[in-house]
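Example record for the data management plan.
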Amino acid sequence: MQAAGVEVVHGPAEAEVARLRSLNGAWRWLLIAASALTIFLCVNQQFVLRFFVGFTPLNTEYYYALVLVMLPFVFVIFPAHGGARLDRVPWYDAAIFIATVAVSLLLLLNIRKAAELGWEFNGAPAGVVWTGYVMWVLLMEALRRTGGWGLVLSVLPFTVYPLFADASWLGPLKGTQSTAAQASAYHMLSSESLLGIPIQAFAETVIGFLVFGTALMMTGAGKFFIAIAFALCGTFRGGAAKVCIFASGLLGMMSGSIVSNVLTAGSMTIPVMKRTGFTSVYAAAIEACASTGAVLAPPVMGATAFVMAQFLGVSYAQVAAAAAIPAALYYFGLFLQVDAYAARHGLKGIPRSELPRLRDAFREGWYYAFAIALLIFMLLVMKRESHAPFYATLLLLALNQIFNPERWTWKTLLQFLEVNGKTFAELIGILAGCGLLIGAFSVTGVISSLANDLLALAGNNALALLGLAAITSMVLGLGLTTTACYIFLAILVGPALEKAGLNKMAIHMFVFYWGMLSSITPPVAIASFAAAGIAGAPPMQAGWASMRVGSIIYFIPFFFVLNPAFVLQGPWYESLYLTLTACIGSIFICGGLQGYQLFIGDLRTGGRMEWPLRILLIASGFLLAAPGGGIMPLSHAHMALVSVSVLVPTLVLTWWFARRGRSSVVAP
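Corresponding structural encoding:
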């Protein structure tokens, strides 16, 4: 399928990231087998199939089995350094692979006895302790290879923190100290560290949704969603950019993967954006921002959302429902930014003759709707989140074999398992290592005292604490992945915000949202860098442009913490009212940010008054969008009244300057 003259990139690998090693021969077959075994273990556990006759594995045994199967592949898929060869596995990586298998197997064989005798707290045999030391080192190396030096240097000091937690110089971080043996046993054997919330989320729900997302992309859903987006949005002003937002939003709802979104949608939309007048830097920035929303958009979202559900102790369906309004505001704000930019710069849409017809696009991919509908029904109605993606995948594959001319073959199935295997390995490498972070704060018991100290630092002011949390998340996001950033903040800042009286779901959504923004925030900005590679733009320039393009989305997290009705933690009519006022307010915020006010025109007609008018539009729009009630001293009505008192005269002035500017242009 083609649209606007550009061939969509799709397929099992979807333009694999270059840092991954290509596995061949026995290594590839081992990865395929490990991927199949991971899916089998998950299905057996979630559906209670009891394939292991006469033996019922503990949850911790199941978690360790996943670590045993997938963690060793981190060291053969991700090379040790930038200069390593990508076409073969060197001897030292093969040796680390074998060592990881041996260590994981030894710990797996001891985990049941550890649970019976309480080894995670005391009395673990020396052999288990030393095996734990080796695993500790391996987990940090896995973190380095999957997340980079920034991640491992952020996590490593905290993993060893229990060894000197009683030191007076730690101040508010002072806690209960452990010996090296005690820390090793706790990290490797307890359900609060290596086997803690991140790995539990992976084992219980993430695997199924990864399988569904991969199946969706490999059956051609990427082509379908992009064609629908071109048919619906292509003719509007700045149409290529709006297609990018719409397509990336649709893809993100299903895949939950930022980089995959960039590579799939961006390979098609970025060239068209450039052809229709957008600069390469701006085109990359739009795609990066649009794809970053993937981890926030239900029903699938990203791996971080599943970790959040584990942290909160709620169903994933509740997290997905809570994310609906924030995701809608995210994409609405981005759409308004792009529309104002296109209007200010006179960028046109794509000619209808170059676009696919909506009817043709639906005819080719109508059956995707059934699989997606089944997934949503099982999530929201049946509340079977661990089963839903597997049933949806089976239905999708059955419909694909019946109605899609490009049916799967055995070769496709092997590619499907290989792609999943690489994703499983990467996530295990990151989540297992980050689990030690949680374990460190758990064993020292420092969280409660830290929350009190943060509240005292903020003067018991919830708004000041929110600002502190935003700044902290911004700093952490510069060097961490979204999931790692969320875990840090959920541990360090979350309890303090809860003690300040804020809604728990809103707090974690706030933290999640800010962690997500690291994907477009330099110097990490992984989404911006991936998009820059497609656009042929300087990566760092694309990163800074992404922050400018998505500037409104930095405001939105504060809205749903100030009033949790934004995350459906209140009456439905209040949620509806706040969503409407936020959308209207966003129109004026974006008008001020981009210098073009919808329904009025270009603000450059104001001359020297342009920037004062823009600032007033941003301020009044923010007052309208921000909720009243909750911790705010003003009610909804008071907030609206204050906003209107500023907004009306500003709009009158803006309209007058715009009219005068148009008159001067047409005057003889």
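Summary line stored alongside the record: Residues 657 and 663 are 10 Å apart (CA to CA).
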